[in-house]
Amino acid sequence: MKILVIGSGGREHALVWKLAQSAEAEKIWCAPGNAGIAMERLGKNGSLVECVKLSAEDLSGLLAFAQAGRADLTVVGPDNPLAAGIVDLFQKNGRRIWGPNKRAAQFEASKVFAQDFMDKHGIPTARSAAFAEAKPAKAFAASLGGRCAVKADGLALGKGVLICSGPAEAVRAIDDILVHKSFGEAGARILIQEFLEGTEVSLHALCDGRAAKLFPTSQDHKRALDGDRGLNTGGMGTYSPAPFLNEAQLAEIQKTILKPWLEGCSAEGIDFRGILYPGLMLTRGGPKVLEFNARFGDPETQVYLTRLADDLLELLEASVDGTLGGRELKWNPGYSVCVVMASGGYPGSYEKGKVIRGLKELESTSHLKVFHAGTSRSGNDIVTNGGRVLGVTAWADSLPRAREAAYDGVRRIHFEGAHFRSDIAAQALRGAGPGSSPQAGAPPT
Ligand code: AMP
Q1: Separation of alpha carbons 258 and 205, rounded Å
Q2: Would the CB of 197 count as within 6 Å of ligand 1?
Q3: Which value, in Å, is the radius of gyration of the alpha carbons in the chain?
């Protein structure tokens, strides 16, 4: 089978790495890929994965490439091409593609759409309202005492959410988005949600239009610095499983969130085939949904795919074909930890082109994989080419061992200005659980 993977981050490296292990994979392209992806070899025939110089947003270029190469399946990593309708375009042209279509991708691309859907179908979430005008928005925020989340409706590179602790902040946030247009068109409408307190967790479920198969738990670390300080980032590290949800809570989430979500999709004719990735708050009143994403998380994918025992290609095909229903996903027991190494200055401005040393020496280390994100090749060197550079991922039968192995890998890799958090999975090791986050409402995700 010939597969085209779209994207260039650590998520896509993990997808390519796992797909390359499939017995059915004969050829893999990645557009545009990165230096690590270009070094992957297929298990079936030893051929190298080929990176293609096409942007993930060049929809017609990607279609033409898939047609010319007769790709049997295209796998979409990032949210932008999904929101732009790449799945619809490929399907209209008779090409098999994995990911939600444009309508289904709205769960992520429009917060107002997602909230309306949740309100309509009884999915537990925050009290909220949507606005295009500042005046009524301010009145609603005032009715919540100013303690609220003000969210740009559209995709805003994960930055379109402003958390407000009082009326003045809420007014400023509303003006920022609706009046000063700080997120451009993505902020033409806003959603205001009441502020929810609790422990934050995110989940992944693989969907096939009818069934949704829940993944194990994981936890991301969004802030740039140890102790959940510093600016928000795309994610500085993850581990799986996370101790924040027990079996009873997972069963409750199946019943109160996934079941009505599936029924709602069916009632509205929304055909969701892909990953549903809800962000939840475990509140005193039970789990509530803060938002939905409609693709794999990054760096969640790195820990999930190093634990997945199934053939990923088979699962993605079942998701496309609507045949997931009878399957149970199989996971390796044990733990996986991913520590992100970033460029100095990230998530602010940073320099590129720093030579990365130590990668070769780690290639033969078992139970460890260095997933590349912002890297490229310069002659014989691999150099930094983005904010998040590498996701050093290790797996073992215990969380302390997986964590130690990941940090051991990190210590062996060097590039100028390299920055990483030293407390990935630390909260889990301390045995912390729901309600025990140091700051109510601001757990380390
Ligand atoms: P979102 O992209 O909607 O998940 O928002 C980004 C982050 O803002 C979340 O990961 C939470 O930490 C926080 N957040 C969003 N909505 C709320 C809310 N209603 N109450 C408290 N925190 C929130």
Answers
A1: 9
A2: no
A3: 21
